[in-house]
Every structure is written in structure tokens, then in C-alpha cells.
Design brief:
heterodimer; A: 322 residues; ABC transporter involved in vitamin B12 uptake, BtuC; 2 strands; B: 253 residues; Rossmann fold; 4-stranded antiparallel β-sheet; globular
């Protein structure tokens, strides 16, 4: 059960997201539509990562791989002039799932620091694969058309794309809510707490962890396909380990192991990245690009003193939202 | 006499140069409580880890319920009817007592790729879990987070989780570890009540518990079984006395 105050935050978050386009439209400034679309895409990525990171205890340092895969599924079809969104998203989903299956099957044979390093290494391989694909722009990236779903639903209308992303976000969070509280979710959480114990009571844990890994990667692949649509551009940089780190930071900031926290973490991170440099510029010209200088210590403080992230700071009478 | 529920033949395990299990032969008869005692570092927990499938023996055979399980994984052995409780309490602290036991039930109710229905309200899991909690005397504590249970209650929950897997043999690794005399007494009585229903391999430091429960006792020293017999025979065994006496002298020095 989710606490009432947290439920208010959740509904508030959805309402804010839903109201951004009309408000920005009235103000004649589309900038915030794009920014919030980006926030929602990374919210999907962060929520998907939290399934394995926060609930499953699998510290994957390669989640950006699926962001890139989803993006390239859109980009490469678009390169050949195929803009059918259903086909693109289908391939993004199946492709991410298959790659997650292979990466997971390899990485989940290890634990701890080895798991982190292998997920990182395999993702960097994909990054360099992207760079080596001269056909598709190499490290210059690839310009991309937006997906076409049904006639009359034109994603070049920023608002249409925006609400498509919002729809996917709500869908993903709802799916995650069901998954985490299901029998399957209990197994994933149990593996995090004590995998030996799970095996001792009879769970063959590997297959469940692998399934969680695949679900997580697939969901992030959808985020990637949406990102390609938003930016109309794909680049290997989507798969860079730095991006994996950013998604991880969003989960940490929002609250590991909370369902909705990572979505708020994505918002906090991207808004910080947007606003703080401007503030710093206003104070002293030329300092804006050093915003990490402020973000770093704040992150350290948050991790030290609020282990459950921003979401955990919201007052709560129940034990855990799960 | 019926075939033993568990038969261990010439089991060996060493870590580098340290021999943890040496040519160990061991049996548990159906319905019997067979206790394993021995000084610290005798290899008792290593022995249980090999029986439960968490550690692979270097050589030897483990036959359980008529089948060779030496190569089986820990979850497969659980499904064969071997249940283990842990010396170091390893209940799931963020789950309620009920959820802990329900998880054990779930592990034995088909696959867990069920991703849509909430587990928390699943009567197929909760009803039998509640029954087992009642049985171990935790019925009133079902909805308390395991982390907030008293140490003794966590130990009871530990056993409840093992019972919930419908085992044929219970491997109990120091069920009274860290307990006060009252709790120890309570667990001893509870285990006595299970006697006959389950076969048990009991590892225990508390000699009162051992002698109150065990049908047979095996004494393990440096991975070897130096004696096996009835409690009376073990009590009278000179070698056993020497082993324990030796340990006490070493501790003083």
C-alpha cells in the first residue's frame, strides 16, 4: 500500500507532466515541453533500472546499452526510409530483450564487483560497435525521422510525441508496480536480500534474475526508441558508460528500491542540470559548465544522509511503497 | 530397519590445506534426530553446506531418500525434500514474518514467473503460511517485519521457513544459537514436538538441547567423525571427552 502523502506526490507528478504542454503553449515557450519529454524518457530508463538495481540488487553499470539499442532501432529503420513506428518499436523491444538476455546470461554468473565490471565492459563494446558503424554515421551519429504510428497522429506535433511519452511512462510504472508486488517480484527482492537463502528454500534464482534483467533492459529499450524520436538523432554517445552512470545517479537520487522514486530522481537530475548552470552563470559568468562541482557534494550528502533518496524524504506512515 | 533417509559416504572437503570434512560416513534414519556436535572449527557448518548443496564436496556421495543428490543444486535438493535452517539468522528482514514463510510456500508451488497478481493477498500462499506460523507459535506476529522480531522469534521464523518447504529431512544448523535459556527451552520443546514427523540432523552447541532431543550423536573433530552412538554411549566415550577437554585447554592457553 502506498502512503497517502506519497500518493499525492505521485498524482501531482503526473498532473504536472500532463499540464506542461498547455501551460508552455500559453506562454509560447516550447522549451519546457522538450525538457519534460526528456525527463519522462529518462524516468522510464531509471524506473526500469531500479527493478534490477534497487529491487534485485544487481548493480548493472551498463543500462545505457538498451537506451542506445532502442534508439538505433528507430534510427537505422529511418535511415532506410522505414518510419513505421509499430515495426520500429517492436524491433526496439525484441532487440533490447535479446541483447539483455545474452548480456544477462553472461553477467549473472558473476556477483559483486565482477558483475559491475562485466556489464560495463559489454556495454562499452556496444558503444564502440556504434562508433565503428560508419554506414550509420559512426561517432557523428545519424539524423532520424520521427516514427509514424497511425494516420493523423503526427509525432512532429511536439505535443503528440509528448503525450505518447507520458503514456509510455505511466504504462511502464504501472507494469513495474504489478511486477514488483507479484510472486515474481517477491523472488527478485528475496534474491537481493539473501540469494543463498532463496536457493535453500527452493528457488533456482538464476532464471528469475535473468528474467528481471531482460524486463529491465526491454523497458529501457523503449525509452531509447522514444529518445531517438525526441532528439531526431541517434549517436553512440547514448550508450556511453557515462550515460549508464547518469541513469544510476537518477535512481540513487530518487530512491533505490522505491517504485516511483527513480522517476522523480530523473526529474531532479535533469532539472538541476538545466537550472543550476544558469544560476551559476548569473552569479559569475563562465562558471555554469562546472555545475558538477555543486552536484557532486550534494549527491554525497544525499547518499550519506538519505539512503532512500528524495522519495524516502517524503513523510510516510507505511513501511514501504513497494 | 528401513533404509536411511540420508546416507553420506566418504565425504571429503578441504579449503586449501585446511581439511573441513575427512572421509565422513554418516546416516540419518527416518524419524530420527541425529545430532552432530564438535568443537568450533570441526566442520559442522561446512558439512551442512555440502548436504544442502551450497558447497560442492571434493569427493564422496550423498544419497537422500534413495537418490544420489551429490550433483544436485541447492534448490533442487530443497524440492527433493531437504530443508536447511541457518546458523546465522537469515530471514528476510524487510519482509513480514508471514511474507517470509509465504516465500517458502511459493518456492514449492510451481514456477514463479507470475508477474501480475499481487503476492501479498494471495490466499494460496498466505493460508498455509499462517498455519505454519501458528504451529511455531508466531501466529500473533505474522504481520510484523522480520527485522522487528525478537532474536528468539527470528530463530523460530527461521525454522518455520524450513518447515514450509514440506521437507522430509530438516538440517538444523544451531537452532538455538544466541538464545537465552528460556528461548532455548522453548525451541527444544518445539523440536521435540516435531520428532517422529520429520527426520532431523541437528547441529547444536547447547548440550542440554542435544541430550534432550537426539536419538544418536555423532562427534565431529577436524572434519572426522570420531564417534557415533546413543547419547549415553557418547557421554561415556573417552575419546569424546578428550576432544572436548583438549578444546577447553586450548581455549585457556
Amino acid at each position: 500500500m502506498i502512503d497517502r502523502i506519497k500518493l499525492l506526490f505521485l498524482i501531482g507528478g503526473i498532473v504536472v507532466c500532463a499540464l506542461v504542454p498547455p501551460v508552455a503553449g500559453a506562454a509560447g515557450d516550447d522549451f519546457y515541453v522538450t525538457l519534460f519529454a526528456r525527463i519522462m524518457i529518462f524516468a522510464i530508463a531509471a524506473v526500469s533500472l531500479d527493478l534490477i538495481l534497487g529491487f534485485g540488487g544487481m548493480i548493472s553499470f551498463g543500462h545505457a546499452a538498451y537506451l542506445g539499442l532502442g534508439a538505433y532501432a528507430v534510427g537505422i529503420f529511418s535511415f532506410y526510409g522505414i518510419n513505421d513506428g509499430f515495426l520500429q518499436f517492436f524491433v526496439a523491444i525484441v532487440g533490447s530483450a535479446l541483447v539483455a538476455l545474452v548480456i544477462g546470461a553472461i553477467c549473472l554468473r558473476t556477483r559483486g564487483i565482477y558483475f559491475i565490471m562485466i556489464t560495463l565492459a559489454l556495454t562499452q563494446m556496444l558503444y564502440f560497435l556504434g562508433i565503428s558503424l560508419e554506414e550509420y554515421g559512426g561517432d557523428d551519429g545519424l539524423n532520424t525521422d520521427r516514427s509514424e504510428f497511425i494516420a493523423g497522429f503526427d509525432l512532429y506535433e511536439e505535443v503528440n510525441l509528448y503525450y505518447l511519452i507520458l503514456g509510455f511512462l505511466i504504462l511502464c510504472v504501472f507494469i513495474m508496480h504489478r511486477v514488483i508486488n507479484s510472486r515474481f517480484g517477491m523472488v527478485v527482492r528475496g534474491c537481493h536480500a539473501n540469494e543463498d537463502r532463496m536457493q535453500a528454500i527452493g528457488f533456482p534464482t538464476f532464471r528469475y534474475k535473468l528474467a528481471a534483467f531482460v524486463i529491465s533492459g526491454t523497458m529501457c529499450g523503449i525509452a531509447g526508441a522514444l529518445l531517438a524520436n525526441l532528439t531526431e538523432f541517434v549517436t553512440p554517445e547514448f550508450m556511453h558508460w557515462f550515460r549508464s552512470g547518469e541513469i544510476m545517479i537518477m535512481v540513487l537520487v530518487g530512491g533505490m528500491g522505491s517504485l516511483f522514486g527513480p522517476a522523480f530522481g530523473a526529474a531532479a537530475y535533469l532539472l538541476f542540470e538545466e537550472w543550476v548552470p544558469d544560476l551559476m552563470e548569473a552569479v559569475a559568468t563562465g562558471t555554469g559548465e562546472n555545475w558538477h562541482f555543486i552536484f557532486g557534494p550534494l549527491l554525497v550528502i544525499l547518499v550519506l544522509f538519505a539512503k532512500q533518496g528524495l522519495w524516502g524524504l517524503i513523510p510516510d506512515r507505511s513501511r514501504r511503497d513497494g | 530397519m528401513a533404509d536411511p533417509i540420508l546416507r553420506v559416504e566418504r565425504l571429503n572437503k578441504s579449503f586449501g590445506g585446511v581439511v573441513a570434512t575427512h572421509n565422513l560416513d554418516f546416516e540419518v534414519e527416518p524419524g530420527e534426530i541425529h545430532a552432530v556436535i564438535g568443537p568450533n572449527g570441526a566442520g559442522k557448518t561446512t558439512f551442512v553446506a555440502q548436504l544442502s548443496g551450497m558447497l560442492k564436496p571434493d569427493s564422496g556421495r550423498i544419497v537422500f531418500d534413495g537418490n544420489d543428490v551429490t550433483e544436485l543444486s541447492a534448490p533442487a535438493r530443497s524440492h527433493a525434500g531437504l530443508a536447511r535452517s541457518f546458523q546465522i539468522t537469515s530471514v528476510f528482514r524487510n519482509f513480514t514474518a508471514l511474507q517470509n514463510v509465504a516465500l517458502s510456500i511459493q518456492a514449492h508451488s510451481g514456477h514463479s514467473f507470475r508477474m501480475w497478481k499481487p503476492a501479498a493477498t494471495d490466499a494460496a500462499l498466505n493460508d498455509p503460511a499462517r498455519e505454519i506460523l501458528e504451529q511455531v507459535g508466531l501466529g500473533a506476529r505474522a504481520d510484523i517485519l522480520a527485522a522487528n522480531l525478537a532474536h528468539g522469534e527470528q530463530r523460530q521464523l527461521e525454522i518455520a521457513m524450513a518447515l514450509a518447504t514440506s521437507p522430509k529431512l530438516l538440517l538444523l544448523d544451531e537452532p538455538t544459537a544466541g538464545m537465552g535459556p528460556e528461548d532455548t527451552q522453548r525451541i527444544t520443546e518445539f523440536l521435540a514436538g516435531l520428532k517422529g514427523t520429520y527426520s532431523m540432523l541437528l547441529i547444536e552447541h547447547d548440550m542440554d538441547t542435544v541430550f534432550a532431543l537426539a536419538d544418536r550423536i555423532t562427534v565431529l573433530v577436524y572434519g572426522r567423525a570420531i564417534a557415533t552412538g546413543t547419547p549415553e554411549a557418547i557421554r561415556a566415550n573417552d575419546e569424546v571427552r578428550a576432544a572436548y577437554l583438549g578444546e577447553e585447554e586450548a581455549e585457556i592457553a
